[in-house]
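Appendix B. One record, verbatim.
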Amino acid sequence: VAVVAMVSTLVAGISLITGAPAFGQEDPAPFFTARPAPIGGLDLNVQFQTEIKEDPSTPRSIASALWAQEPALASTPFSLALGSASIHGFKDRGLRQLALRVLGALPAEDEEAMLARARERWELLEEQGRWDTLITELTRRFEEQPGSEFLEVGLRLSSALLMVAKGSRAQAVSRALLAEGQFDPGAVQEIRRNIIKAYIAQGLVADAEIAAQRYQLEYAPDETSWQLLRARIALAGQRPKDAVFQLIGVQSYEAQLWRAYAEWRSGTLPIDLALTRLDAVLIPAELVRLESTRHAMLAEVASEVGYARLRVGAIEYLLLHKAKADPLLPKQDSD
């Protein structure tokens, strides 16, 4: 009996809302009915507001526009495409390996998005020092000669090859770029600098010096990257004092490392102070390659017996991170 009474009350409630006759009624149910008695210990004292009043202060055109926009919310197509904001979110949270996997798995929206996705992936590979993987991917794209991408891919490829001391291949890629066509002056300068770096990686110091002198006469550069390159040429030519001179007043993280190293090489900085100077450079966490360069320098400077523990720690870091040796620094191993 209690169940039947509850069902009847619910049906009556529906009739109140819709205005339709309840089952067994000939006429519509009245708008207000008496409060139902408690059923099974439940007091169904529920009041329904059935009137929708229009706000007179809202212009009819605006109200209509708001209603017209409502269906558009449901018509947004589902997509697995990944925006750059999501990738940056992964990177900001230190999830770089996850970002790499996602970049390779999810589809891009169009050709432009695909290229942007590739750039994101290349940058992540560079940050992680995964040069072999990066070189494989860039070589494949470079050999395809993808039109407008040819210059960008070629520059990235030659730079990556230089990071693993493959100077001959880097030089070949750079010369292929120069032979391809007319590029803007900035691009030509970058290509020529990579050729100079390729000479250094191959141990062709005299060629690097001649090319650098020509470059200096043509462009008269004075930026930090050029001073660093001139210092590297001097170090490759066993002229550490000239390298120190090139880096006077240069304040980048990389310049601070190479100046301390060059001063130690020149004999003007004792081991203790050189180790302190190298360790004091505040390298941002994302500059993985530069941190590896610092540890390679520490391992070389701490080569005397009294610094064995520090040397072992530096070598362990390089082995753990599978760091590629800078062409100007001796390759470190666990022996």
